[in-house]
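USER: Fancy drafting a protein?

ASSISTANT:
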Amino acid sequence: MKITLLANRDLAANIALNYLIPQLRGHKLTLFLSDQIGGRASVPQPLIDLQFFEQQLFNRIVFPAVDTTAPAAIKNGDKLKTFSGLQNKLCRPIESLNQINQPCGLDKLRASRPDVILSIRFGKILQEQAIKCARHCVLNLHSGILPAYRGVMPTFRAMMNGDSEYGITLHTINNSAIDEGSVVSEARLPLDLSKSYLENVIALYRPGCRLMLDAVKTITDGEPLPTIAQKGRARYYSFPTSEQLLQFQARQMRLYDPRHIMRLFERYR
């Protein structure tokens, strides 16, 4: 089966792809990356700092350094691979795809001839023509429980709300409405408020990728993919404001923990 993967060029997406891609053996894989989520004009400083650890630190410093010693890293099965390190599992070179709904972007997407499109943290909203490129379906892995936590940074909102558990949802994308597709499956974890937002987010992707792999197997076996409509009160969240970020900090919660970042760095080295 031809599977097209859509992901963002960030740390959490890379870790998710490390869980997912090696388990998709036997399928023809194409990977397209967005360079950021959304198109924010004004960003509070704490989110700029978070973006440094999520993107710039690894994309500009860590990953290029690791790629120079890629052959040694590949031999070590417990190490995480950079985007480039995952290239040998793909059937074509990784490309950026920030204009997925424009003619040039649609041409790239159609050229991958996807039976299924799998989206993980992809930074652009798919419009009708992009969705139609998939022969079977488009599946998105959303790092929040739906419909209560639609939108961006749902784990931040769960932490702010003091939830005892949080989760990740696999759902279909049928139109351009954000996070409103039918639910395929979900996974829930205890929410540890002593851990940083970023650490809690990354923890979701191991069980989340298992949901995605189960769905791929169902489709590959020729069975119908069971889905249910979203139930309960729906709420959409946008990026937190400066005031909300200050409240988060005042409650002794952190967006990132440098010690956690260093542990992840060691997993790539």
About this structure: Residues 2-268 form a domain with the Rossmann fold fold (CATH 3.40.50.170). The mean pLDDT is 94. The radius of gyration is 18 Å. The chain has one domain: 2-268.
